[in-house]
Amino acid sequence: METSETYAIIDININDKDLNIINTDHENNKDENQKKISPLTTVIKIQRDRGERDYIGFATLPEQVHRKSVKRGFDFTLMVVGESGLGKSTLINSLFLGDLYKNRKLPDVQDRIEKTTTIEKKTMEIEERGVKLRLTIVDTPGFGDAINCEDSWRVCSAYVDEQFRQYFTDESGLNRRHMQDNRVHCCLYFVPPWAHSLRQVDLEMMRRLHRKVNIVVVIAKADSLTVLEVRRLKARILNDLEEHQIQVYQFPECDSDEDEEFKQQDRELKAAVPFAVVAADTVLEVGGRRVRGRQYPWGIVDVENPRHSDFTKLRTMLISTHMQDLKDVTQDVHYENFRAQCISQISQHAMRERGKLKRDSMGNNNDVVITDTDRLLLQKDEEIRRMQDMLTQMQEKLKASDKKHDSIIDV
């Protein structure tokens, strides 16, 4: 004899006191109820607030994602580019309240003469309120220090491409559970304060990187400039970026439902670009409180004072408000562009190999049956070859006409 189970959904209003009574009675009569109504499963939805009659439960999904993300931890890779002596190491130590360069060795005279751009990567684990961050700092010592700096960008660009390529290889592999993200999420580019605008080496470097990584321009050692000089230098840098069509990191627009305080903070961050910063790794006592700053004969520069430096705004943008957006832009824009190029190259290579194999098989075996599709592909390949030959002939004619024109001018 078959038995069918009955599910009764009861919607009632009870308080905590009644709930305790129900639980106690249920425990006391558990065996008896089991005998009487074992086929009957009663699902009681407890409504604590009168406005939640249609509560299902998926509103806890953000909490589930939060717990899983905190347990897994976060990764962030920051590249710093700029000449030696601009305070890059000091700024990194000030931003993350650590000492990443305590074992650094200064190069001697001979090393400085033969200086070339190199890559130094340092990783540290940071934990704050139970949230773990694996921070990777990619330093570029030697950038801009040589007499001939025209190839300084190659090492940085090659490193960014290599991290994209490694991530693409891991993503295409069989075991993707323990993938490590070493892609560069942000590049802090340091501009010296004595420059009147962006130099040629700065423009060339940014032009090579702006489609691969999020660039944030930083004016180093801003305490050597007056307020008016800082304002003028910022305006010139923005004009140079617009003139040479260099895309630096763009702040996302605020949602309409954000509070006014967040919108005001966003406006202040956008107005501060490029950030004019002062960094310090010494703590001084001023007016009974300890501040991180620099001591001068004429006073103290407080790096966290917005009137002295944009350090606080840079830290807020980089760590507190836009770190995840920097990672999202890296994933959704820069890496996707690299991935599309890789897939296109793989497809073209596969098509060439396929055409080569078909031509070889046709040459070795005269009895091979050629289908309509193969015949169409061969025709297309032949058309492509003819078009390439025509383009080559046109280029040769253009070169010949240019040489003839130059000879006429010389006469």
What report would you give on this structure?
- By secondary structure, the chain is α/β, with parallel strands linked by helices.
- The chain contains twelve helices and eleven strands.
- The chain has helices spanning 16-28, 30-36, 61-72, 88-96, 109-113, 152-171, 200-209, 227-243, 260-271, 311-321, 323-364, 372-410; strands at residues 6-13, 40-47, 74-81, 120-128, 131-139, 186-191, 215-219, 275-276, 283-286, 289-296, 299-302.
- The strands form three sheets. It has a six-stranded mixed β-sheet with strand order 4-5-3-6-7-8, sandwiched between helices.
- A hairpin with a 2-residue loop joins strand 4 (120-128) and strand 5 (131-139).
- Helix 6 (152-171) runs parallel beside helix 7 (200-209) and helix 10 (311-321) packs across helix 11 (323-364).
- Residues 72-345 form the Septin-type G domain.
- Its main location: cytoplasm.
Structural class of the helix and strand makeup?
alpha/beta
Q: What portion of the residues fall into strands of 2 or more residues?
A: 15-25%
How far the N terminus sits from the C terminus, by CA atoms, comes to 113 Å
SS element count, helices: 12
Mean pLDDT: 78
Main location: cytoplasm
Family: Belongs to the TRAFAC class TrmE-Era-EngA-EngB-Septin-like GTPase superfamily. Septin GTPase family.
Coiled coil: 377-404
GO cellular component, one term: cytoplasm
